[in-house]
Amino acid sequence: MPPRQRILDAARALFFRHGIQGVGVEAIAEAAGTNKMTLYRHFESKELLVAEYLRALAAENVRVWDDLDAAHPGDALEQIKAWLHSVGGHGEGIDHSGCAMMNAAIQIADPEHPGRKAVEAAQRTHRERLIGLCREAGLRDPELLADQLFLLVEGSRAAYRSAGPDGPGSSLCRLAGPLIAAHQQPAPVPAT
Amino acid sequence: MPPRQRILDAARALFFRHGIQGVGVEAIAEAAGTNKMTLYRHFESKELLVAEYLRALAAENVRVWDDLDAAHPGDALEQIKAWLHSVGGHGEGIDHSGCAMMNAAIQIADPEHPGRKAVEAAQRTHRERLIGLCREAGLRDPELLADQLFLLVEGSRAAYRSAGPDGPGSSLCRLAGPLIAAHQQPAPVPAT
DNA sequence: AGTAAATGTTACCGGTGGGTAACAGGATTT
DNA sequence: AAATCCTGTTACCCACCGGTAACATTTACT
Q1: Does B15 score more than 70 pLDDT?
Q2: Lower CB count within 10 Å: N or C terminus of chain A?
Q3: How far apart are CA B21 and CA A23, in angstroms?
């Protein structure tokens, strides 16, 4: 595997464990089985390394959606449910890339940091894909539901970190399920 | 105002703007109109300063709930709505303490950091208070609704940061309103 | 084989970070 | 007034971090 890829992989693992600010370039290089110089021959600065790390994360996020589309072709509702299930757990084999996105957005204080731009772009496309699926699934109020699901998922990731494993972050499916079900109903009768 | 309080205030402002890792103790002391030594005479270390900053934030969070209770005595539903409104906007005069809590939980990588414990405790009491209000308001499925609202709020804060002001983070009330309304209805008919 | 590109190694730089020592000045109490 | 406490000032320590220079070494390609 070329060093550039090894560096990106190592950066990903370390950024996830210790945070972006908590990892020095030297530690990344060492974890990648190389040294600081070759790192700087492939990346202009740590800033740009972070940005590329986030772009890679975004690309992988898109691939997750494509895989779901391939697994449940034509069944948008099932794609949504499968996605919720895949990001709802917090054990092994779970996709934490979205979580890493959010962490990066918070850990990078400077709004002009290229990594922040990458995250914003990824979240936009992410949201639009979700809206498209909700619409395709024939659910009522697709934009509203998509945004609700989006926030539930983001909130679940945040709550898992801030409220611990016993908090509401661990029960995404339990919380999102009724929401989807409600949007399969006809329009609700307004409350008295 | 005693130096200790000035230091906590300065720390709060700087932590919010530049992140916890992005602010050095010297900058905090200077912003507080004092110096590093007096800071270290009041706080053992930066770690413990951060922890106290978060405990102060948690106390203020509790006060927000108490104020809401005083403003709408006996009307739990109105308290919930007022709370959503107060944290839903992102302009001036908005309470960002919850947002700062979440930021801290993500910026502090070490799970054993005393600040992390403070955040977890605060989020637990926060959630329980919300559950209590949902139950008191006579809403259906109070635990479920409370957790949904909790995640919507956390997600809204995260999305405002990661997806920008045009993302779904800016429309908390629009997203939470229908959810509450749905829980004022009788039990829904299961979808076919 | 030979050449050029990519990688490894070491040492270094300037800046900054958290944290401390020692001492001087001001305020408060008795 | 005297003793005590709190504060301010300066200087310093050590560790680390992002980034670079110079040179040695390996790899790859023709």
Answers
A1: yes
A2: C
A3: 12
Which residues on A lie below 8 Å from B181 (Cβ)?
188, 190-191
The whole-angstrom separation of Cα A101 and Cα A116 is 9
- Taking an 8 Å cut-off on Cβ atoms, the answer to whether A161 and B101 are in contact is no
Amino acid sitting at position A40: Y
CA distance B58 to B103: 13
DSSP output for B54-86: HHHHHHHHHHHHHHHHHHSTT-HHHHHHHHHHH
More confident residue, A93 or B67: B67
Query: CB–CB of B181 and A171 under 8 A?
Result: no
Distance of alpha carbon A53 from alpha carbon A116, whole angstroms: 12
Is A152's CB within 8 Å of B153's CB?
no
Instruction: Give how far A54 is from chain B: nearest CA, Å.
Output: 12
**Distance separating alpha carbons of residues A110 and B24, to the nearest angstrom:** 16
pLDDT-based confidence at A188, cuts 50/70/90?
Answer: low
Q: Are B13 and B33 in contact (CB under 8 A)?
A: no
List the A63 CA – D19 C1' distance (angstroms): 35
- Residues of chain A found within 8 Å of residue B88, distances taken between Cβ atoms: none
Count the helices and strands in chain A (H runs, E runs): 9, 0
* Burial class (CB within 10 angstroms; exposed 0-12, middle 13-18, buried 19+) of A44: exposed
- pLDDT, tens digit (0-9, with 9 covering 90-100), for A50-69: 999 999 999 999 999 999 99
User: Letter for the amino acid at A15?
Assistant: F
Which has the closest alpha carbon to B99: B114, B85, B88, B110? B88
